[in-house]
Design brief:
heterodimer; A: 317 residues; alpha/beta; Rossmann fold; 5-stranded parallel sheet; B: 252 residues; two-stranded antiparallel ribbon
Chain lengths: 317, 252
């Protein structure tokens, strides 16, 4: 069986959920090895073992920005061990490492995959949602292994299998000279309400709200529902709300039980990030808005008329 | 300071491209506009140039004979443009794109390269990092703020938890997120001047880059469709339909 390497960035002192999702997929394709970037801890190793990792290559990059030294170290190791595939998540540091690694290895990297496959004969393919998720493109690697793929979050469920703690191999990081960068401060934003990526209900707003101050309607509807609040790229770019709220291709991928899209027309870039919600409810003035093609319930109407009544009905305000 | 801003011309998103079922290549519409996310990089480049006695050179790889989007960026105030146009680059993957852009960047000379984090039509999201690796410089990615002081560049880097402050020596590359600065609109004067600004057109052979195709779309199939929902006109009772749906989903 081929070795499948999975990149996993330490997040809040623990393996990233995205890394654990990839690990679940890697188990089905071959022998998984985790490429762990971060300080590491007994607890982290236990979690990785529980999710089926037999081996962890540990890249402790300290205050150096991970990408350049970690990519160089992975490239050196890949030359020795010849993995069949290396999986990354569609996330900041993952992308940074994957891009640099691709150059080091002189190999292509396929981004935005929603599934990957590796046949016993070494043929590798990835699946990608295109046209806002209306079509699936299957891409084949036409290059030697290891095949590098960047996979969208929530493409696979993370699944503990109750494995023993893995073998952890510390990897020395090379000096990358002028390619290196230093992290001098870390700031965690204050959390307000439930996390967008974990929430069961999301209320999201778009340009149809009309103005930045009307985003308060989104918050007022979210409060009685215990929902997280989201946004389209259009209103993030316009500076109405912070980037952390952006749902879509360049923002977060969400799969809540209920997604309420308010004043959102449904640009492809947005649909890709939320179309897998169990129930989609949309309120929009334009009866031809693309959001209605995927909504379970679409209300053609003015958000400023529908939302206040709904908020009142729910006892919010 | 020599600032290079990588920009991409993309088909107008209001007029989407499609996959050719026979060649499996993206068929782009004729209309090319400046990728909206690139306006932020151009604006950041202009501000840093204004503050540091710098120049802004645009570098762009794109379809042959189209400069409409480049002119938009020149009209914002960039000094000149280097365009790489070559038929052999149709369908180029991220690695080839990065090799071409890095070679053009090196040829032009630079202290700071500014990119967007990904293009709006391709979304590979790895070209800036690849360029940095090829150029042997740091990539300060996903910047929500950029400062240059002496020979150092410092950014606020977006993270899943919040942001980090990250610093590196020049020369370096930064990728800036949308919203990092408010892009200016071209003035009439800017639009007129843009027509006179120097542009250089290069081909792959000028750069000595090997064009490789490491991947291929082998099929395009329709995704499983979502069951059609109910669309109703609000006549004052729309909120009650929503309430019913929320109860059905057991979230109230």
């Amino acid at each position: 069986m081929a070795e499948i390497w999975v990149f996993c960035e330490e997040t809040d002192g623990a393996p990233s959920t995205l890394g654990l999702e990839l690990l679940a997929k890697a188990r089905s394709l071959g022998e998984p090895t985790v490429l762990y970037a971060g300080a590491g801890s007994a607890q982290a190793w236990e979690t990785l073992g529980d999710h089926g990792a037999a081996t962890v290559l540990h890249f402790d990059h300290g205050d150096s920005l991970a990408a350049a030294p970690v990519a160089a170290a992975i490239a050196a190791r890949a030359g020795e061990q010849a993995p069949g595939m290396i999986l990354f998540g569609q996330a900041y540091t993952d992308r940074d490492v994957a891009g640099r690694l691709a150059v080091r290895l002189g190999l292509p990297v396929l981004s935005n995959a929603v599934d990957v496959n590796l046949e016993p004969d070494g043929t590798a393919t990835t699946r990608h949602e295109i046209s806002g998720g209306a079509e699936i493109a299957v891409a084949a690697f036409r290059a030697p292994s290891p095949h590098l793929a960047i996979v969208r979050p929530k493409s696979f469920p993370a699944e503990p299998v109750g494995g023993p703690p893995p073998e952890v191999v510390p990897i020395e990081l090379p000096d990358v000279g002028g390619a290196g960068a230093l992290v001098t401060e870390r700031h965690a934003r204050e959390r307000q309400g439930p996390d967008l990526e974990e929430a069961a209900v999301i209320v999201s707003g778009g340009r149809g709200l009309g103005a930045a101050e009307h985003y308060s309607l989104i918050e007022s509807l979210a409060a009685p529902l215990g929902a997280a609040t989201g946004a389209t790229r259009a209103i993030v770019d316009a500076g109405w709300v912070p980037y952390a709220k952006q749902v879509g291709q360049t923002g977060k991928t969400v799969k809540p039980d209920v997604y309420i899209a308010c004043g959102i027309s449904g640009a492809m870039q947005h649909l890709v990030g939320m179309k897998d919600a169990k129930t989609i409810i949309a309120i929009n003035k334009d009866p031809d808005a693309p959001i209605f093609t995927i909504a379970d319930l679409g209300i053609v109407g003015d958000v400023h008329k529908v939302m206040p009544k709904l908020i009142e009905e729910l006892g919010g305000g | 300071m020599r600032i290079l801003v990588c920009v991409k011309q993309i088909p107008d998103p209001a007029n989407p491209s499609r996959f050719d079922p026979d060649t499996h290549l993206l068929v782009r519409t004729e209309d090319q506009i400046l990728d909206d996310t690139d306006r932020y990089g151009v604006e950041m480049g202009l501000r840093l140039a204004e503050a540091n006695e710098g120049t802004v050179t645009l570098v762009s790889m794109g379809p042959v004979g189209r400069a409409q989007g480049i002119r938009q960026a020149l009209a914002m105030g960039a000094d000149r443009a280097v365009m790489i146009e070559d038929e052999t680059l149709a369908g180029a993957d991220a690695l080839t794109t990065a090799r071409v852009l890095a070679a053009a960047t090196e040829r032009t000379g630079f202290d700071l390269v500014i990119c967007g984090p990904e293009s709006t039509d391709g979304y590979s999201g790895v070209v800036p990092q690849m360029m940095a690796e090829l150029l042997g410089v740091a990539a300060l990615t996903y910047a929500t703020g950029v400062e240059v002081s002496g020979d150092r560049v410092t950014i606020n880097r977006q993270t899943s938890a919040g942001y980090d402050v990250v610093t590196a020596d020049l020369p370096a590359l930064v990728s800036v997120t949308a919203g990092v600065v408010e892009p200016r609109y071209p003035t009439f004067r800017g639009i007129m001047q843009a027509k006179q600004k120097p542009t250089e057109t290069l081909e792959v052979a000028d750069l000595g880059v090997e064009v490789s195709v490491g991947q291929e779309v082998v099929s395009v199939v329709p995704a499983p469709e979502r069951a059609a929902g109910v669309v109703a006109e609000d006549e004052g009772e729309g909120h009650l339909l929503i309430l019913e749906k929320l109860q059905e989903a057991k979230v109230v």
